Amino acid sequence: MIHMLNAAADRVKWTRSRAAKRAACVVAAAYALKTLYPIIGKHLKQSGHREKKGAYPAAENREILHCTEATCKKPSPGVNADFFKQLLELRKILFPKLVTTETGWLCLHSVALISRTFLSIYVAGLDGKIVKSIVEKKPRTFIIKLIKWLMIAIPATFVNSAIRYLEGKLALAFRTRLVDHAYETYFANQTYYKVINMDGRLANPDQSLTEDIMMFAQSVAHLYSNLTKPILDVILTSYTLIQTATSRGASPIGPTVLAGLVVYATAKVLKACSPKFGKLVAEEAHRKGYLRYVHSRIIANVEEIAFYRGHKVEEGMHLLITGPNGCGKSSLFRILSGLWPVYEGVLYKPPPQHMFYIPQRPYMSLGSLRDQVIYPDSVDDMHDKGYTDHDLDCILHSVHLYHIVQREGASS
Fold first, then answer.
1. With 60 as the cut, is the pLDDT of residue 12 above it?
2. Which of 180, 347, 370, 412 is the right S-S partner for 408, CB 3.0 to 4.6 Å?
3. For 122-141, what is the HEC assignment?
4. CA 275, 174, 119: angle at the middle one, nearest 5?
5. What Å distances lie between residue 378 and 230, 314, 362, 364, 383, CA to CA?
6. Using the 8-state DSSP alphabet, how is residue 70 labeled?
7. Which of 90, 100, 102 minimizes the C-alpha distance to 167?
8. How many whole angstroms separate alpha carbon 172 and alpha carbon 107?
9. What DSSP state is assigned to residue 77?
10. Looking at the predicted structure, is the pLDDT value of residue 150 above 50?
11. How many CB atoms lie within 10 A of CB 314?
12. Tens digits of residue pLDDT in 246-300
């Protein structure tokens, strides 16, 4: 590698360090192209697939889509293109106009963050001067610098407290906007009824309208602080280091490229090794919402539960499904019997030979009373299974319908 750099430097009349820097830039560009090209191609392919899917909907082609675990798997939560797209849509709610209360709090918060960054740089330089005065054994200079350091701590403390205070005010302003918009949408056009009784995508609306909005508003405000200040710190610190290196006659290009590569490689390694925190947070929110929903049901039905003494329904026990008209009792059995398809989720049920469904409207087949009792089997099927008319008489005795046999006869 060294011989190649020397040969390239001699051919184009570059110095060895200059050739090494350009080679490092070429390697970094090639690695970036190799890494980013599959990601860009994947996003382009996904956008083309979405456009094609929107142009030919299943409703127009009269296709029935059956959902399985593979086809109905929800996208994993994470910081991706969909996240930023949704964040841009929420920006219209958080900042409906250019001049708003939220914009004012955001500007004040930004000023506090910038002030904290400049204070950090000043304190870092002051620390270096204090150490220098100690090394050079200058007590008078050391005392002066130490007094300056103690005096700068007062505004630094005020700025730190102001950052936390403004972050809380910004989160409260975001929460107010989101809650107003969410409740306005929730109570418009009877959406509250449709969400509870006609749409199962939002299982816990009370959790989403209260706890989730509060956590989201706090996270957005905290995210702005955690992104803005480190970016400013990196920019200003890099600028200061570059100026220092230039003043001493050193070239800052090589170290800057090397530091950028180290940061990029570290980020890739952390991303590959870290668990999917977005999925974990979403699962935590879902479980907390479900727990809250179960507790609300206990509060609403506390008297009935007390009468039943917390009756348990375990696997294998009989279960009576009740409810008002239109709540989905018949729909459940239509899905279990296969009359309706499963559009979402996975359904587990016993084999058909282990279950028998009785419809709401009785069906009377053409034939005798015997044919009505043994339906859907025929007389031959009944004999093949080892049953006789005596067994049918016993069944009719059990259900108190034997008087029909006495009145009409089994063959009538």
1. no
2. 412
3. HHHHHHHHHHHHHHCCCHHH
4. 75
5. 80, 37, 18, 14, 9
6. T
7. 102
8. 15
9. P
10. yes
11. 5
12. 887 777 777 777 877 888 888 888 777 877 777 787 778 778 878 877 887 788 7
Give the pLDDT confidence score for residue 45 in this predicted structure.
62
Q: Are 372 and 364 in contact (CB under 8 A)?
A: yes
Cβ atoms 43, 245 nearer than 8 A: no
- Which residues, in sequence order, are CB contacts of 346 under 8 Å at separation 6+? 67, 68, 69
Reading the block at residue 279, the tokens are 């999925």
**387 or 18: which carries more pLDDT confidence?**
387
C-alpha separations of 134 from 44, 123, 126, 139, 145 in Å: 60, 16, 12, 7, 11
Distance CA 289, CA 287 (A): 5
For tokens 């046999």, name the residue. 405
Residues 382/390, Cβ–Cβ less than 8 Å: no
205 near 196, Cβ under 8 Å? yes
pTM over 0.90: no
Is the confidence at residue 87, as pLDDT, over 80? no
Residue for token pair 């593979």: 70
Q: Who contacts 217 (Cβ-Cβ below 8 Å, separation ≥6)?
A: 171, 172, 174, 175, 178
Structure tokens at 1: 């590698």
